[in-house]
């Protein structure tokens, strides 16, 4: 197919096979008309007419622009550029011959997704710089490989949307529904990785963030995709002024309604705290390249103890909860009597410590006179854990990380892949980490039960609260030091904040290098410590509020809306086909 210009008639059109019955055709765009609207039509037509590397390059760039809608930039309006470009490129795919429509749509979607994920996730390469001598060579494969794999989901969305592509607003609705569906699947297929879901573009505003209490981040994704792509509806070869303008108005009204709900919810927000509970979050800001050196282990531990001693005793009949971040101790804390004794002497009266640390099943572990853990047998299992320790140095509670990071905390098909050298990506401990058996709220003296989330467990909306449990707060221990001062830690924090809104629970977050914070059930930051700063965060524990709608019903209604959209589009298409053949 070639894009042609008829100079006599002054019109752009597409040469190719006739439309199938009931599909509709791309309209002709006059090139001689003046004014803003015809100019936008001609612009859209030129984009739709791109082929080959030019089309792929623009799709890649458009996807990259969408990353500006994520933290730390927070330019949600970037979707008003990125998604209309995607629509116009898919217009071009829809004008291809039947045998090439799906292939072209898949390529457009993949390149758009590759640009979005590369621009949004490039910072993962920083983790390989911690030990660059051994792992630096992996940076290009990690930085490009993960986005390339994740781009399959936008590609699938493009293929699904193009199957229902028709002139007017319906094509934008189809794309928004398809993106919502594939974003939801991205969080669940192959262990799931819902990082930078398109719905987070609406969480940069505290008012719009409140929508997560109703429809979750998947619902926000549907709204964001619809509102972002709506400006394309009236324009281009498949644009229709009437339906496109109506969709733009509806999208604006939807955003306005979401904002109004958010402002109303915040204006009536309950700022109550849990009586008698004080928080003392420790942010040691220990460089990742120094933390695990054997000669530095006690120096790192002393930093934790020093910051812990700054905690103040709780009032009578109260409790101070001291929190250390994920894997805070560079040794097996539970196996070191000396370390536990130091902790007991450092905690103030009426306090308890929750410390992130590696925990080993103690079948053969020993302790030497210096307090260091002895060599352990390869048959032992290791867990990325949170331990609760009281003022006597006794471990009174434990929670193990359930959702491990593939290729970081465990190696899928390890016995097969180790022979290729990929075993170096797994944790250096024998066999990597073992997942916990399931989350059970951690009970601390005088404190509401806590749902403990270790590292990126906080990015999975459906997993932050175990079924049948009723925690009073979310406790997130993490170590984002691997990624330095890059967008990664900011994105992680933003996603964790959204879980607080979805569940109506306060979020308490301790991170090695930040961002440590106390967040109320409305996602508002009560207190925080900036990235890379050493210090503490003190404050009260915000009280939980009643279960929001999303916490009670989950993603079912949003997925139902997506299903209904496609059923209606399919019925409309079938009806037009029957009418065309009569």
Automatic annotation (TrEMBL):
Its EC number is 2.3.1.269. One of its GO terms (biological process) is lipoprotein biosynthetic process. Keywords: Acyltransferase, Cell membrane, Lipoprotein, Membrane, Transferase, Transmembrane, Transmembrane helix. GO terms for molecular function: N-acyltransferase activity. The chain crosses the membrane at residues 75-93, 105-125, 137-165, 211-233, 245-264, 549-571. SUPFAM superfamilies: Carbon-nitrogen hydrolase. PROSITE patterns: CN_HYDROLASE (PS50263). GO terms for cellular component: plasma membrane. It is a multi-pass membrane protein. Pathway: Protein modification; lipoprotein biosynthesis (N-acyl transfer). Its main location: membrane. It is found in: Cell membrane. It is an enzyme of class 2 (transferase). Belongs to the CN hydrolase family. Apolipoprotein N-acyltransferase subfamily. Catalyzes the phospholipid dependent N-acylation of the N-terminal cysteine of apolipoprotein, the last step in lipoprotein maturation. This is Apolipoprotein N-acyltransferase. It comes from Pseudoxanthobacter soli DSM 19599. The lineage of its organism: Bacteria, Pseudomonadati, Pseudomonadota, Alphaproteobacteria, Hyphomicrobiales.
């Amino acid at each position: 197919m070639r894009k042609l210009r008829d100079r006599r008639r002054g019109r752009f059109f597409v040469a190719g096979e006739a439309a199938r019955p009931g599909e509709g055709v791309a309209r002709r765009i006059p090139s001689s008309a003046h004014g803003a609207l015809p100019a936008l039509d001609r612009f859209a037509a030129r984009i739709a007419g791109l082929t080959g590397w030019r089309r792929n390059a623009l799709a890649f760039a458009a996807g990259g622009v969408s990353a500006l809608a994520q933290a730390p930039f927070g330019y949600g309006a970037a979707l008003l550029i990125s998604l209309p470009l995607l629509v116009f490129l898919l217009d071009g795919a829809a004008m291809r011959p039947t045998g090439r429509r799906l292939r072209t749509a898949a390529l457009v979607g993949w390149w758009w997704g590759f640009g979005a994920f590369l621009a949004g996730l490039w910072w993962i390469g920083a983790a390989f710089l911690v030990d660059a001598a051994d792992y630096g060579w992996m940076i290009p494969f990690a930085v490009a490989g993960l986005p390339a794999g994740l781009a399959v989901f936008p590609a699938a969305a493009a293929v699904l949307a193009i199957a229902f592509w028709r002139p007017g607003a319906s094509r934008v609705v189809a794309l928004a529904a398809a993106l919502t569906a594939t974003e939801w699947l991205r969080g669940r297929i192959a262990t799931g990785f819902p990082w930078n879901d398109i719905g987070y573009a609406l969480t940069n505003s505290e008012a719009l963030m409140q929508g997560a209490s109703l429809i979750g981040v998947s619902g926000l994704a549907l709204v964001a995709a619809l509102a972002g792509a709506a400006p394309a509806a009236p324009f281009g070869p498949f644009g229709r002024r009437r339906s496109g303008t109506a969709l733009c108005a509806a999208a604006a009204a939807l955003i306005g309604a979401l904002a109004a709900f958010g402002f109303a919810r915040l204006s009536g927000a309950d700022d109550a705290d849990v009586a008698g509970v004080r928080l003392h979050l420790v942010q040691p800001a220990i460089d990742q390249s120094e933390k695990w050196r054997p000669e530095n282990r006690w120096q790192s531990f002393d930093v934790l103890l020093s910051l812990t001693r700054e905690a103040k005793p709780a009032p009578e009949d109260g409790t101070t909860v001291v929190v250390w971040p994920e894997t805070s101790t560079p040794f097996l804390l539970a196996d070191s009597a000396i370390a536990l004794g130091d902790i007991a002497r450092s905690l103030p009266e009426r306090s308890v410590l929750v410390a992130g640390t590696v925990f080993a099943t103690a079948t053969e572990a020993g302790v030497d006179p210096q307090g260091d853990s002895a060599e352990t047998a390869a048959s032992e299992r290791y867990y990325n854990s949170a331990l609760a320790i009281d003022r006597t140095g006794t471990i009174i509670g434990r929670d193990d990380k359930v959702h491990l990071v593939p290729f970081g905390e465990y190696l899928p098909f390890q016995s097969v892949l180790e022979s290729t050298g990929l075993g170096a990506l797994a944790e250096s401990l024998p066999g990597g980490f073992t997942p916990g058996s399931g989350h059970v709220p951690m009970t601390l003296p005088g404190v509401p039960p806590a749902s403990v989330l270790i590292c990126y467990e906080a990015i999975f909306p459906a997993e932050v609260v175990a079924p049948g449990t009723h925690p009073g707060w979310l406790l997130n221990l993490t170590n984002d030091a691997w990624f330095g001062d890059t967008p990664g830690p900011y994105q992680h924090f933003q996603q964790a904040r959204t879980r607080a809104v979805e569940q109506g629970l306060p979020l308490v977050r301790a991170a090695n290098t930040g961002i440590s914070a106390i967040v109320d059930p409305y996602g508002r930051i009560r207190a925080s410590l900036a990235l890379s700063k050493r210090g503490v965060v003190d404050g009260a524990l915000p009280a939980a509020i009643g279960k929001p709608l999303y916490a009670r019903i989950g993603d079912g209604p949003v997925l139902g809306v997506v299903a209904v959209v496609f059923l209606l589009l399919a019925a409309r298409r079938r009806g037009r086909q029957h009418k065309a053949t009569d």
